Amino acid sequence: MPVVYILNNAQGVVRLWEQVDHLAYSASSGSYVLGSCHRMSLKLPEDDELHPEWRNEVISFLPEVHRSSLKLASSRTWSIIDSYTLGPAEHVTAIKNMSLEVSENTHERKDMIVVGTAFARGEDISSRKESVKGAVTALSEIGGQGFLIVAQGQKCMVRGLKEDGSLLPVAFMDVQCYVSALKELKGTGMCIIGDAVKGIWFAGYSEEPYKLSLFAKDLDYRDVLAADFLPDGNRLFVLVADSDCNLHVLQYDPEDPKSSNGDKFLNRSKFHVGSFRKKWILTPRFRDVKYLSLL
């Protein structure tokens, strides 16, 4: 059955009869970008070079698959003002609003909506994104130069946007299986890289020279659904949500002997929240509450 998703505030609502997987807000244009999907009938391509026998296939009862699309919703009129449908095998994996450098000469920066996708063509063909090798599964801003870090396949790559619209790689790091969470501590170059089956890493990006370095690992190999920083004064904590509906509080403290000189995270707490957590928002400090995270 179709699912109704509603964006609302005091001004109005937008109703979509589709499943919404990703959402980003563009403050410069006052609009929302949504990555949604709907079910559609699948017919095997007749021009596939690996499977010429598909051309002669005759079937009346076609299977159904998800078809992804991007939609632009105005916060002024609360209506869909534009949409773009992706190819049959292409799926939206991440949407972020970022301030990126758009000129190498003037160093001008603009707010850009960055969309990561992946092509999934079946179990006998590796998942990939056409313009890069490997599926793009997570995105984040990084550093102070207007660059972005992209999780693509088994690598995390820092890329800069060139004036011709292409992305220039400047640093990379080999990662594990599937990056499910990627987040920078804003403006510091320090980032966390969460893997769906291999736990979480703490890494840092330097600009002179361009380099990604690994600082610490989570040796318990948690299956990470979502992760974020939780700084508290001069202490650095990381929140991790796993597939068992648990919320873990980890600390990076290289001065603690149990951290093996900072090579591993320290377990500080664990909560069972009773449901899956895919996203949260870190809000500013309040007078009576140190930090408030909305899951």
TrEMBL record:
RSE1/DDB1/CPSF1 C-terminal domain residues are 67-128, 129-280
- Listed transmembrane segments: none
Q: Which GO terms describe its cellular component?
A: nucleus
- One Pfam family assigned to this protein is CPSF_A
Q: Which GO terms describe its molecular function?
A: nucleic acid binding
Q: Give the domain of life.
A: Eukaryota
This chain belongs to the protein called RSE1/DDB1/CPSF1 C-terminal domain-containing protein
Q: Which organism is it from?
A: Aspergillus tanneri
